[in-house]
Specification:
Strands 2-1-3 form a 3-stranded parallel β-sheet, covered by helices on one side. It has helices spanning 2-22, 24-56, 91-104, 113-116, 131-140, and strands at residues 79-83, 125-127, 145-147. It has 2 domains: 2-56, no CATH class; 79-147, no CATH class. The protein has 148 residues and is mainly alpha-helical.
Length: 148
């Protein structure tokens, strides 16, 4: 039985060998097409990585002047920027805000806006305790902040 299987396997291999020689173009395509497909995928991957690197390779640029908040009526207070957390909690955030204010000629209040609004709006930038308070403030007092 094993001998019979080996003979049949040998006959089939010999037949396939002669068929592949007879139809050499098809055999060549069958051998080359997987390699070509892998090469195309590799080139697409390189192209994608180059595009990603170009998009992520940004250089730092300075912010241009941000205009101060203005309103149609002078009796409505207007605040250019409200930010969180309250001034003095994080020195690195304060440093960023100080730099931004200096670059744009803004004045910064040491008091949070929810303590001084609406009577003493004299500055361009105010802090607020946290993001929830900021959202609540903006909802309760629409159209008085340019950015938050």
């Amino acid at each position: 039985m094993l001998r019979h299987l080996l003979v049949q396997c040998g006959v089939l291999l010999k037949k396939n060998w002669w068929l592949s020689l007879r139809h050499w173009k098809v055999t060549l395509i069958q051998l080359v097409s997987p390699i070509a497909f892998v090469v195309v995928l590799f080139l697409l991957q390189l192209l994608y990585k180059n595009v990603q690197n170009e998009q992520n390779n940004t250089t730092a640029t300075s912010l241009s002047h941000v205009p101060k908040c203005t309103t149609l009526h002078s009796f409505y207070p207007c605040v250019s920027i409200i930010y969180s957390p309250t001034r003095g909690q994080y020195k690195h955030i304060d440093a960023i805000i100080d730099h931004f204010a200096h670059a744009n000629g803004y004045s910064i209040s040491d008091e949070p806006i929810d303590r001084v609004y609406p009577k003493n709006i004299e500055h361009d930038i105010y802090s607020i305790q946290n993001q929830e308070n900021m959202t609540d403030f903006i909802i309760k007092h629409p159209n008085i902040t340019q950015a938050g």
